[in-house]
């Protein structure tokens, strides 16, 4: 009987989703007002059509979530009028490169790991940032890891400049990049400027680093073995970790819960987005990683996502993990 009721609900939900309502225009206008968007003519029509399709997708998924078919739910965010192709082009900027000279993190076999961890509560993590219309996720992942290491050493949490990296880090920019090249730039340069002194513009610009505004320095970096147990040990022992992941399907619309997507890939070639790992724990009996994104607080759980842990390295979360040494 419960199965029949669930089928009926899904059928009714699909019918409702397919039927336009008188509120469509109001929702679209409210969305644009909320996120400061202004379109004219044909672009407005195209964006509205994408937005309305996104609403249907979210409603369908969340109905299934309420029926216990998913462990996470979806929601509207500032990118809900972007196509998936557009989003991939502008927001997923990780370009993983081989680097055989990296030192490898050696975990301590006798370290007792806490059952849960959140480096935010210990002062290691700055607020959620906004990479804007620029494939600079690699820069935000880099600064996040370095901000944590700088705090660990100095006791001062300093927001560091992603724009400094976008403008000055060789072969990195809004068209994509990788954290290793950013570390190398900071080491060779003798430091990185503060966010305040070198503010973010979300576009490639000329390099105007000023050594008098250094916010942190870096003398090296290490890579972590490509398994979740090593990643857990490094996170607990060292602080926030820079990682690459495979952004797939509903990740863009994630709003809350524990993101579990077995369709994700975990090979190095599939990694397309850089984020910051800041903790781990359990929710409803499921293990998760706590991840900081750079898509504003309007995305996810105020800018964060809980991603599946101990699910065969789902989405490649342990495939390309590094941290700087200060």
TrEMBL record:
The question of whether Protease is a record keyword is answered with: yes
List the SMART domains.
Inhibitor_I29, Pept_C1
PROSITE patterns, alphabetized = THIOL_PROTEASE_ASN, THIOL_PROTEASE_CYS, THIOL_PROTEASE_HIS
**In the UniProt record, does the keyword Repeat occur?**
no
Which InterPro entries does the record associate with it? Papain-like_cys_pep_sf (IPR038765), Pept_asp_AS (IPR025661), Pept_cys_AS (IPR000169), Pept_his_AS (IPR025660), Peptidase_C1A (IPR013128), Peptidase_C1A_C (IPR000668), Peptidase_C1A_papain-like (IPR039417), Prot_inhib_I29 (IPR013201)
Q: How far does the signal peptide extend, from start to end residue?
A: 1-18
The protein's UniProt keywords, in alphabetical order, are: Disulfide bond, Hydrolase, Protease, Signal, Thiol protease, Zymogen
Domain Peptidase C1A papain C-terminal: from-to ranges = 113-325
Give the source's domain of life in one word.
Eukaryota
Domain annotation Cathepsin propeptide inhibitor: ranges: 28-87
The entry's protein name is: CTSL
Extract the CDD domains matched here. Answer: Peptidase_C1A
Similarity comment: family membership: Belongs to the peptidase C1 family.
Pfam families found in the cross-reference section: Inhibitor_I29, Peptidase_C1
């Amino acid at each position: 009987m419960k199965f029949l009721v669930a089928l009926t609900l899904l059928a009714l939900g699909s019918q409702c989703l397919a039927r336009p309502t008188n509120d469509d225009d109001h929702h679209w206008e409210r969305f644009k007002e909320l996120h400061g968007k202004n379109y004219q003519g044909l672009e407005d029509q195209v964006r509205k059509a994408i937005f309305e399709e996104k609403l249907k997708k979210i409603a369908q998924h969340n109905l299934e979530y309420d029926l216990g078919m998913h462990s996470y739910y979806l929601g509207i965010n500032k990118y809900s009028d972007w196509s998936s192709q557009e989003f991939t082009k502008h927001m997923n900027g990780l370009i993983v490169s081989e680097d055989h000279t990296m030192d490898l993190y050696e975990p301590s076999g006798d370290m007792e790991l806490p059952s849960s961890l959140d480096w935010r509560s210990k002062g290691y993590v700055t607020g959620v940032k906004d990479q804007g219309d620029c494939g600079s996720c690699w820069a935000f992942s880099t600064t996040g890891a370095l901000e944590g290491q700088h705090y660990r050493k100095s006791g001062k949490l300093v927001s560091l400049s992603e724009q400094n990296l976008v403008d000055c880090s060789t072969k990195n920019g809004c068209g994509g990049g990788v954290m290793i090249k950013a570390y190398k730039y900071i080491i060779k340069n003798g430091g990185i400027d503060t966010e305040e002194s070198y503010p973010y513009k979300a576009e490639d610009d000329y390099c105007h680093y000023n050594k008098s505004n250094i916010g942190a320095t870096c003398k090296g970096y290490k890579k972590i073995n490509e398994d979740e147990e090593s990643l857990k040990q490094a996170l607990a022992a060292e602080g926030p970790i820079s990682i690459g992941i495979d952004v797939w399907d509903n990740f863009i619309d994630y709003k809350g819960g524990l993101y579990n997507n077995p369709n994700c890939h975990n090979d190095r070639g599939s990694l397309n987005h850089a984020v910051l790992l800041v903790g781990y724990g359990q929710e409803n009996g499921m293990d998760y990683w706590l991840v900081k994104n750079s898509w504003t607080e309007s995305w996810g759980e105020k800018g964060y996502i809980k991603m599946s842990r101990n699910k065969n390295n789902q989405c490649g979360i342990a495939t390309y993990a590094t941290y700087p040494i200060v």
